């Protein structure tokens, strides 16, 4: 990052030195493992690596120190993510707990919930998944139909979630459930913490284009969780769920973009080795991809600078940035930050990076040419570029589809007329 302070430079050096010393020996082979379309790779080894990080205090670096973190500033969180990606650190297995659930518990949970759930996230002893989307509540999250009813000292949960990342590996799920009979839309929802390893929870992997199964269907049939495992009050689930989604587009974005840089460099090298760089059209597309990557980086730095400066509409919680939702009508998918300006930043960022990454996968396939149509081996052994192409088809859909992001920008920022209800409902 530009204009780093002496403290930030010292922090960068400490992160870089630790990664260099520890991504070695028994963990050297873990470099670069995992990631989109490759979530099946060496899961136990990546889990061991992350617990090794935890023992040295390198998980949850942005959390307040009193909750087990380092209290790192926004700038230092950016630095950590950059250095981790540059070092080739393997894909994180505890990122949903660390980046989504943990900050939510810090912001909205009770003292008992913080004491119970935060330490195992820091130590990577419990893994989490997110129970939001349903067959009829994807982009239109407010249409959640999974029900939960109090039965003595427990919530009893019935319903179905879908596209649940890493559900098979997870110990717990934070789920949005309808707890008020007869309620509709974003009213009557609650945010529950549900143990996954129990009777009444059925997890069914969804085979993706890559042949792997990061995503899953989850069926709740009388699953139970303690009555105390509700974050906030009954009926506040929408507000809390939207705050959680706000964390999804935080400082890890810059680390993600360093990963994008590594992928771009690989595609450019592929073009040199295959002679595709001599094709003026492919060379032009590579140039445009490079320019797009630089624009993403500069825009992310500008956004993070606003966060660090305390831009209006954002609340900071011990180094972890919290986007708080408005009261009133909530958006369909994506985050609902406090001001239209923050809506735009979040939606523009998602729209730009997902489209860029999908196009990079298409460019890789065009550079490979006919060879890109042939698997490396039986029965379905894909190379890195084939996985990039296939998995990146989902980038413009998950975490808020491109259509939803464009609607948010058009309606809330540009002030354009709302999409007709019939058209919106048909699309959703």
UniProtKB/TrEMBL annotation:
The keyword Nucleus does not apply. Its cofactor is FAD. One of its GO terms (molecular function) is flavin adenine dinucleotide binding. Residues 317-346 have a biased composition (Polar residues). Residues 5-124 form the Acyl-CoA dehydrogenase/oxidase N-terminal domain. It comes from the Bacteria. Keywords: FAD, Flavoprotein, Oxidoreductase. GO terms for cellular component: plasma membrane. Residues 312-346 are annotated as: Disordered. Residues 235-314, 341-414 form the Acyl-CoA dehydrogenase/oxidase C-terminal domain. Residues 129-221 form the Acyl-CoA oxidase/dehydrogenase middle domain. The keyword Transmembrane helix does not apply. InterPro entries: Acyl-CoA_Oxase/DH_mid-dom, Acyl-CoA_Oxase/DH_mid-dom_sf, AcylCo_DH-like_C, AcylCo_DH/oxidase_C, AcylCoA_DH/ox_N, AcylCoA_DH/ox_N_sf, AcylCoA_DH/oxidase_NM_dom_sf, Mycobact_Acyl-CoA_DH. Belongs to the acyl-CoA dehydrogenase family. PANTHER family: ACYL-COA DEHYDROGENASE (PTHR43292), ACYL-COA DEHYDROGENASE FADE29 (PTHR43292:SF3). This is Acyl-CoA dehydrogenase. It comes from Actinomadura soli.
């Amino acid at each position: 990052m530009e204009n780093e302070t002496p403290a930030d430079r010292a922090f960068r050096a400490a992160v870089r030195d630790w990664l260099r010393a520890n991504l070695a020996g028994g963990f050297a082979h873990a470099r670069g493992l995992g990631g989109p379309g490759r979530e099946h790779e060496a899961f136990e080894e990546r889990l061991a690596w992350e617990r090794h990080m935890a023992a040295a205090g390198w998980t949850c670096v942005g959390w307040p120190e009193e909750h087990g973190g380092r209290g790192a500033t926004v700038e230092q969180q950016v630095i950590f993510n950059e250095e981790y990606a540059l070092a080739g650190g393997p894909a994180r297995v505890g990122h949903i707990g660390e980046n989504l659930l943990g900050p939510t518990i810090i912001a909205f949970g009770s003292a008992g919930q913080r004491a119970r759930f935060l330490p195992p996230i820091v130590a990577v002893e419990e893994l989490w998944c997110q129970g939001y989307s349903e067959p009829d509540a994807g982009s239109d999250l407010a249409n959640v139909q999974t029900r939960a009813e109090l039965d003595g000292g427990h919530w009893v949960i019935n319903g179905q979630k879908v596209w649940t990342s890493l559900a098979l590996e997870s110990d717990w799920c934070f789920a949005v459930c309808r707890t008020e009979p007869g309620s509709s839309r974003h009213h009557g929802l609650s945010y529950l913490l549900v143990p996954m390893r129990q009777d009444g929870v059925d997890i069914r992997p969804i085979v993706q284009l890559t042949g792997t199964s990061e995503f899953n269907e989850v069926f709740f049939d009388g699953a139970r969780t303690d009555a105390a495992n509700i974050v906030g009050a009954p009926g506040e689930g929408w507000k809390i769920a939207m705050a959680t989604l706000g964390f999804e587009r935080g400082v890890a974005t810059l680390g993600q973009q360093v990963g994008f840089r590594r992928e771009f460099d690989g595609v450019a090298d592929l073009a040199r080795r295959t002679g595709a760089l001599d094709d003026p059209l492919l060379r032009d597309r590579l140039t445009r991809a490079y320019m797009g990557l630089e624009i993403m980086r500069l825009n992310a730095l500008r956004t993070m600078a606003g966060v660090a400066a305390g831009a209006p509409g954002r609340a900071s919680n011990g180094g972890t940035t919290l986007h708080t939702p408005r009261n009133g009508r909530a958006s369909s998918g994506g985050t609902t930050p406090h001001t239209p300006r923050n809506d735009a930043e979040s939606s523009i960022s998602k729209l730009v990076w997902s489209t860029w990454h999908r196009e990079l996968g298409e460019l890789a396939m065009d550079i490979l040419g006919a060879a890109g149509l042939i698997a490396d081996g039986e029965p379905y052994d894909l190379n890195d570029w084939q996985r990039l192409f296939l998995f990146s088809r989902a980038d413009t859909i998950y975490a808020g589809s491109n259509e939803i992001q464009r609607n948010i920008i058009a309606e809330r920022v540009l002030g354009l007329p709302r999409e007709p209800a019939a058209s919106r409902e048909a699309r959703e």
